[in-house]
Structures are given as C-alpha cells and as structure tokens.
Amino acid sequence: MVAMCGKGSSSRTFWNKLMEFFTVSLLNGTIYGLLLFMVSAGLTLIFGMMGVLNFAHTSFYMIGAYLAYSLQKVIGFWPAIIIAPIIVGFLGVIVERFFLRRVHKYGHAHELLVTFGLSFIIAELIKLFFGNYPVNYQVPSSLNFAAFQLFGTDYPFYRLMMGVISLLMFGLIFLLLSRTRVGIVVRSAIYRPKMAEALGHNVPLVFMGVFGVGAGLAGLAGAVAGAFYTTNPNMALELGVLVFVVVVIGGLGSLEGAMVSSILIGLISSFAVGIDLSAADVLGYVGAGEWAQQVGGLLTLKISSLAATIPFALMLLVLLVRPSGLMGEKE
Amino acid sequence: MHKSTQLKFAIAPTLALVAGIVTAAPVKIAVLETLSGPQASTGLLYRTAVKYAIDQMNAAGGWNGEPVQLVDYDNQGGPSGASDKLKAAIADGVQIVVQGASSAVGGQITEDVRKHNLRNPSKEIVYINVGAEALELTGEKCNFHHFRFGGNAQVRTKALVDAMKQANVLGSKVYSINQNYSWGQDMEHAISDNAAAGGYKVVEKALHDVNKIQDFAPYVAKIKASNADTVLTGNWSNDLLLLMKATRAAGLKVRFGTVYLDQPGNVANAGEVAVGHYVVQSFNPEASGAEGERFVTDYKAKTGHMPAFIEPQTVFGMQMVADALKRTKPEAGALNVNAFAKALEAAKVKTSVGEMSMRAADHQALLPMIVSTVTKDAKYKVDATDMGFKPVKRFTAEEAATPVQSSCVMKRPA
Fold this sequence. Notes:
heterodimer; A: about 325 residues; mainly alpha; 2 domains; two-stranded antiparallel ribbon; 13 helices; B: about 425 residues; alpha/beta; Rossmann fold; seven-stranded mixed beta sheet; five-stranded parallel beta sheet; 15 strands; about 40% helix
C-alpha cells in the first residue's frame, strides 16, 4: 500500500497513482544517487590507494561550491563550474604533498587525524570568509527551466544535467582506469604499491595525482550541486556521513561499487518517503494491528519518517553480512 | 527601558566595567548557547541579542548600583554539553541562565534547574527561555523557575492560519510537513488543531529526520499527489530552504506558511522562490512605527546588523527580565532568585510591537505576533536582496494567546 492511494478511489486511478509514484521516485532516486556518486567516487579511490578514509573529502565538496559561487559572479556560471574543480584539485594536491605525505610514515591513524583536523579548519575558514549563513548561490536563470512534464509536474532540467554530468564522469574515470596506460599504473599502485614502485613507477606521484583528481571530482560535485541545493558552511557535514555510508556499502576502493551503492541509497531514500507503512499496519494483516497501535513506539513508526535513517541500517547489514562491501576486494 | 536615555548612555557600560568597584555579589547572567560548531550561527545571534539587552540594562544603572555581568558558556550543540556547562555556571555564581536555540537543550536545562533548586534551597537559579518553543516546557515540564519569552507551536500556528485565511491564501487543503522531534511534532498537532478555525483539511501529514535530507524531491512528489493548496511547516534552516527550492524546481504552485523563513540567509538563498510565502514573526520593523525604527537603528549601530529572526524576541524578553530586576530589592546585597521570579511573573513591558507580559499560570510570555509575506515592496529589505517581509496582519498579545495547558502543574515556593 502506497501513500497516495485514497480509500475511495477506483482501481484505475489507484494504478495511475502507483505508476506516477513509481516513475517519479525512480527518477528522483536515480539522480540523487548519481549526485552521491560524484562525491563518493573520489573518496573511494583515495581509500583504495592510501587505505585511509579522507575525512576532509566532503570539505573539498564544500570548497568547490563556494569557489564556484565566488567565481560565477565574475566569469559566469559555466567557466566557474570548470575552473572551481581545477582549483580544488590543486588544493587536493597541496594537501597530499605537504600534509599527508609528511605523516604517512607515522601510520594510518595520523593520516586520519590530519584529514579530520583539516575538515574543521576548512569549515571555520569558510565561515570566516563567507559568514555563518547560506550564500546566495543559485541555478542561473538560463538553466532554470523544465526539461519535460511528468504526470503534470515540471521536471527541472538542472536535475537531469547533474545526472548526466555524473554519468559522464563515471564513464571517463572508468575508461581512464581500465583502458589506458595511466589507468594500469594507477590500479597497480592502488593494489600493490610496493611492487609498482619496484617496477620503476613513481608511486608518490600517482598518489598525489589520484588525491588531486579525487578532490577535484568532489569540487565539481559541489560546484554543480551547491547551486541546486544550498551552499552553506554545514554542507560538508551534511553530506559527509552519507558519503561514507555509500563507500562502505559499495566496497572501499571500488568505483563500480560506489556507483551501485549510490544509486541504491538514492532509490531507497526516494521510495521510502512515499511509503506510509508501519509495523503496526503489517501486523494488522495478521490481526495484531490493534495490539501494535496500543504498544506504539517503534511499532507505529512510519517508514516514511525513517527515510534518512534507512541507509545507515543498510550499512550495518552490509558490514555484518559482507564486511568488504558489495563489490569491494579489500577486507 | 527608556529608549532616550539608552542612546545617551551608550558608553556607560564600558565605563562601569572599567570603574568596576566590586562590593556585594553582582548579578551574573549566563548565556548557555551553542557557540561553536555547525549549529553556532543561531547561538551567536542569541548571544548578540542578550548582550544588547544587558548593555541597555547597565546603561540604565545595572542592578543594586552595579553593572549586571554577562558570561558565556558554550553548550557545544547538545543537551549533555548544556548540562555540564550549567553546573559550571552554577559554580561560577550565575543566578540567571538564558538559552533559546534548541528545545532539546531547553528540556535538559529546565529539568536540571528544577532538580538543582529542589536540592539547594535558597541558592536557586532561574532559566530564561528565549526561544525553545516545545510545548512541554510550559506543559508537563513547566516549573516555577522556567520562563518562556518565545512563542510556541500553538500560538504561532493560530496567528499564521488566521492571517493567511483572512488574506485568502490558505485554501482548503493543507499539507503538514515537519521535523521529527518535539518542536516538529508540536507543529503537526497545532496544524491539525487549527483546521476547523482555518476552514481547511489536513490532506497529509509528514514527519522527517532533522537536517539529514539533501533531496526533498520525493516529498515534493507527495505534496503534489495530495493536491494541497498550502504547505504549513515549522521547518527551519536547510530543511525549510531545500523544501522550498525543490517545490519551485518542480514548478509546483503551493504557498508556504512558515515559522522560520526570516532566519538570516534564507531569503537570499531561496531568491525569487521565497516571494509570496508567509511567516509568523514576533517583530517586524515595518509594523512597529517610529519606535520600531528607533530600535532597528540602535540595534544596527550596536551590533552591525538589523535585528532579525529570534533577536527581537530575545531583546524583549531580556527587557522583561530588566523590568523584574528593577522591582526586586536586594537582600543583604544579593539577589533573591525566588523574589525575582515572583517579580518576573508580573513583568510587563511596552515594546514597539505592543504590550507584552508574563502569564503567571504557566510562565509563558504573551507576545504580540505579526504575520508577514515576502515581497519586493517591503520597506526593510533583508539579506542584501530586493525582498523583505511585509506585514499582513498584527495580533496583540491577547489575540495571539492560546490557553494554558492543563498538563502544567506549577509548584510555587512557600
């Protein structure tokens, strides 16, 4: 039973509504998932490479949004969307070269703490320069139109564009990693760094490059999504936890895994919102509904009110059943 | 407060502090807010407003010939931090605690204050709640040493519904969407309770996680499917902004009735999306005449920005505190908190939006309310945009008031 089915409606309108719910949720969920992928792609690559979760990763997402916001006032929207991620990429390179590499020899815990501290510093710097409140970063009016009508509702073009950018990004990284020489070196440096180094490849340079590209991708996601959602000093934090969930479910270090789990989480959060079902309703089918209503608490909690929590439950499940993630190879 | 003297003595608090002759115990007022971390922006606003009001108090001579001291404690965003810092404040000799940014924190403080006062007779402290609006604070949790100077879900929704109905923008189908915690649940109840008065039907109710959702498109699909004319919501911060932006992106023509649209940055970020939506406020400079203009100018001169969001209600609340302090005589050079609380029960101030007073039965302040809409022809523009809040309807404190909750059983000291 779906939220929209009214009691008095005929079966035909019920099916229409169900179709509408299904199509809209599918589209919304997929595109939100693609956005999540844009942010988590870099994170999962960096993890695969260095074995360290980069806590500052979503900070790069935030910097990307703020940079694009500042730049678009001067050079226009499109140039800003292109230049901001490049600058963020360079910032990533600097962070790897001058911070992470220095603490690398002390082990993972230190690297983790460096990125953790960095995320705080970046957040405070953003507040210092841009203030405590969301900034006025909006989708330019030339892009602010409906792509098509879906069951009488406009579907924003910008949403589709975000999805397309994400797909292009996935395609490019995938081809780069699997079809080029650079890709081979990178993959070998990720899985067997010592051996790659012994074969004469400059592994630290590869690390630096991957870190920079990963940061740049997050920056791109921020530049694109910041205009559609909000650009505020908490955006890193808001997305941060969810992106980790994506990477853990997908399998640390696996690009395809990140794609699958991003879309999965996008779809789950989108569909769950429309399902006003509680445990009490289900128990109602076996005649225990009244009892469940009386007990209340967890039993009467609607699935829709838990929409944002379900991904975390899924992560727990994945960690219990398959700790390496859906497509991960590293334990 | 005499506004004319306050300008003349703008420099007095500084002088008073420099001269600071410490004799008996000066009154210490603590701001127990979130002053660092992601939620700090609102906490810092509360502090600014409290500081402004205390500077006024001191310009008018302080209490018992001494300036009132303001001390800050950072509750670090949560009830546990607040509980720790409250202990620190008590140890530092604080007698008046001010907080407002969160009902969760407010619930913790009011319980801690109640227990402290039970265990430490004659060393009582009082909690000045300037913005935690959950109903339970003046309901089952109400106690003699808690005073609320903000509104609550019932007061705000009643005014909002009344004004929107009169402006003919409410429609007959209302969608209720709120955050899933005490405040949001109160709002959901209030929206249902006002259905008869507003002549609408609540077509659907949704509760969602607080500040966790990035993508509101699925909720917009639900709103669309419900054919609602108006969305009533108590959402704040990102949960409000993202919801409004997603609605506009889908080309959905619904009107929003909100409580927190006037939070700084909201109008700038929402842009044109905000135009035509409604907000219920405790202050609007355009609705408060020359007196209000003076307040706005003076506040801007002292703090660098116009009073917005929760700042006016905080200043007014603290003016009531000042009024009660003035009427409380020192006992052996110190403040008797119970005597002060009794004086506060009868506090009454005249502000630029009208008279406000404290209701002794449940310690809920009776505040005038103003319902405004976002337009380009508002007198005062906000967030450096060409938009502002234009008053639609004003409510006196009596008109806005809702009855005392029957769950409030207040125990007064003998």
